[in-house]
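Hi W., the glycine complex you wanted:
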Amino acid sequence: MSLKPIQQTVLVIGSGGREHTLAWSLARSPQVGQVYVAPGNGGTEWPANPAAEGLQPRAAAANVPISVDDLSGLVDFARQKNVDLTIVGPEAPLAAGIVDLFQEAGLRVCGPNRQAAQLEASKAFANDFMRRHNIPTGGYAVFDDYQAAGDYLRQVDYRVVVKADGLAAGKGVLICDDIDQAQAALQTIMIERAFGAAGDKVVIEERLEGPEISILAWCDGQTVVPIIPARDHKRVFDDDQGPNTGGMGAYTPAPDIEPALVENVMQTVLQPAVDGMAAQGTPYIGVLYAGLMLTADGPKVLEFNCRFGDPETQAELPLLETDLLEIFWACIEGRLDQVDVRWRSGSCATIVMSSPGYPGSYPKGLPITGLDKAAELENVVVFHAGTAQSEEGVVTAGGRVLAVSALGDNLAAALSRAYTGVEQIQFEGAHYRRDIGRGYQ
Ligand code: AMP
Ligand code: GLY
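Structure:
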């Protein structure tokens, strides 16, 4: 006799490519019956498919028109639909305390609570925390007074980075070549208040030099399990030219991020961070993302994020062999040490297709064609980000529009397949980088 598995209902909060990937990965779990995505995008709705094979999701997904900042609306929805587990994609609702609210309502949710999310939401908190717990980072000082910050700039004998303390959608970090730029950065943040209340305090950091990497891990408050290393490409144009973006493509595993380096970061950064948060009574549960600079004195932390990366997730989760739902449950229940997190061999690459003009202003509502052709390719999945369904079909609705991911036996194969996927898809002015993963094939 076989028991019918209990089919769980999960809710993914967010609307980007990362959230499409989370919904897709969860919908492949044999334990999931229904996925909801709030608010989702043009690609996060599909019917159930009991005969799913390969990279197809099995459980149905549906969008829910509730925005990520309507926390009580999200709680009400989760209650009404008897959602078993909620996963939060972006940082803003985590920093606003969505986990605390869900827990107060007796709902299960995987992510850091408001206190723990301070590791991302306040750069001053993160720096003070790292100093207290001997986690390697550069020199820094925190100011809420413009004059005092300016006086400090004249004392330090190194180049600096000036950061708004709070969340500023990745824009509140100003890298300065000299004191004039640093003074101008202070003016931008503290006087012009370009990032609003996020700039009530500034953090002036020593400017570190070296190659940059990110190492992410699942955390259950005690145990830390690394996620396969990925590399993102932040600049909008090939050869790392043009302005920074949320990320234009990623690949995993990154061959130059060797197991010994991951282990080093686990021992010196991620485990001490999780131990430190537990010791101060704010256990860290969820995904912890360490952005690091590989300096001449070893890896040093640039920032923590309290969530998955976007588009790194689109290159990581297709390689995950273990049931993602299992991992999230283990994080919540404090038994991550009992889960065998396995990854497929081979590589995954993801190429972001963006709107013309991104990361500046861009048009919306451009019709997208060729998605069906890309979907027919083997080992290719198209994750939607800034898209919407309209009467004419799928149209663009954001800066980063799609992320085309592909698996391969090696990076060259994954990249070539991902680019074949990209070439099937058209919208007016579509932009993508041609050099994702170049130099590593
Ligand atoms: P953050 O949001 O704090 O990671 O900063 C965004 C980007 O700014 C990082 O990915 C780095 O490229 C750069 N950055 C941040 N902090 C520093 C630092 N202390 N030294 C050099 N570059 C930095
Ligand atoms: N792709 C960088 C980030 O998610 O922060």
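The longest helix spans residues 259-279.

W.
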